[in-house]
Amino acid sequence: MPYGTAAFAAIADPTRRQVMERLADGPRAVGEIAEGLPVSRPAVSQHLKVLKEAGLVSDRQDGARRIYSIDPKGLGAMRAWLDRFWDTALAAYAAEVERTKVNDSGEEEAEP
Amino acid sequence: MPYGTAAFAAIADPTRRQVMERLADGPRAVGEIAEGLPVSRPAVSQHLKVLKEAGLVSDRQDGARRIYSIDPKGLGAMRAWLDRFWDTALAAYAAEVERTKVNDSGEEEAEP
DNA sequence: CGTATCGGTAAGTCATCGCTTACGGTAAGT
DNA sequence: ACTTACCGTAAGCGATGACTTACCGATACG
Questions:
Q1: CA distances from A106 to A96, A100, B67 (A)
Q2: pLDDT: is A88 or A105 the higher one?
Q3: Which of A9, A21, A89 lies at the smallest CB-CB distance from B24?
Q4: Positions of chain B with pLDDT under 70
Q5: Which terminus of chain B has fewer CB atoms gathered within 10 Å of its CB, N or C?
Q6: Cβ proximity of B86 and A79 under 8 Å
Q7: Containing H/E element for B55?
Q8: In the complex, which nucleotide's C1' lies nearest to the CA atom of residue A68?
Q9: How far is CA B55 from CA A61, B22, B67, B78, B85, in A?
Q10: What percent of the residues of chain B are helix, what percent strand, and what percent coil, each to the nearest 5?
Q11: CA distance B91 to chain A (A)
Q12: What pLDDT does residue B10 have?
């Protein structure tokens, strides 16, 4: 799975997650996204480039401005990975809880 | 949300995701996890420390060995964040698709 | 007891990342 | 055409991170 790798690395950065949350409200231009963020506008541009290459956002030209939107494709890949993982992990955890519960019930094996 | 931050940073690393996938099959000792991975055993120990602090794994002592298991708590936090985000993002995307479709249908505004 | 296995920690190195300032190129307004 | 707004890119810097080898405490085993 060489695709989802970029997405996970992309959302690892807090600033990038802030950008994503702003985009969740709807499409925004770069300047609007950068306004209020604690970093400069060029930094936001670089973050948007990373997010785009990860398949998490898409962009469209609108005159002199550039509008960025969420691209559900990348998000879907991440969710798929998590879900595939989630099932087996939960099963293993349930089995582990069961095992621990048996041991806690007062069984000992060798040394009294 | 200062909690999920650590989890996202943790699974951003490919080696750490490999560790998680091995743990998905069931609890494992450190040596077993490290075997076959392209990094040294101390490196795996450091990765496990990060995963533990992120709430993604938990550990239990078994004699001289230390058994690690998946902790669904951290995974749940990530899923929650993604899901909360997923809904609004999809809605925004649907609206955006609608908007684009209207423009694609052959409307022009000013310059012929 | 002595010896071996298991695994966490310390110290140091090398690459990568996120940020800044400076610049250039395109589109819109006058 | 001149100017202004908008935004991507280049260059450089400081910080963080992943890895290695070396070391050490703790637990089983003879």
A1: 17, 11, 21
A2: A88
A3: A89
A4: 1-3, 93, 96, 98-112
A5: C
A6: yes
A7: none
A8: D7
A9: 42, 17, 15, 11, 21
A10: 60, 10, 25
A11: 9
A12: 97
The per-residue pLDDT for range A32-80, each reduced to its tens digit, is 999 989 999 999 999 999 999 999 999 999 999 999 999 988 888 888 8
**pTM for the complete prediction?**
0.86
DSSP state string for A78-92: HHHHHHHHHHHHHHH
Output the CA angle B88-A60-B101, nearest 5 degrees: 70
Quote the strand ranges of A1-112, DSSP E: 28-29, 57-62, 65-70
Rounded Cα–Cα distance for residues B48 and B51 (Å): 5
Distance CA A108 to C1' C27 in A: 79
* CB spacing of A92 vs B85 below 8 angstroms: no
How many cross-chain Cβ pairs, A to B, lie less than 8 Å apart? 84
Contact at CB, B9 and A12, closer than 8 angstroms: yes
**Residues of B with Cβ-Cβ distance to A69 under 8 angstroms:** 92-93, 96
Alpha carbons B68 and A101: distance in angstroms, whole number = 17
Cα(A46)–Cα(A43) distance, rounded to whole angstroms? Answer: 5
State pLDDT tens for residues B77-92.
888 888 877 777 777 7
Contact flag A75-B85 (C-beta cutoff 8 Å): yes
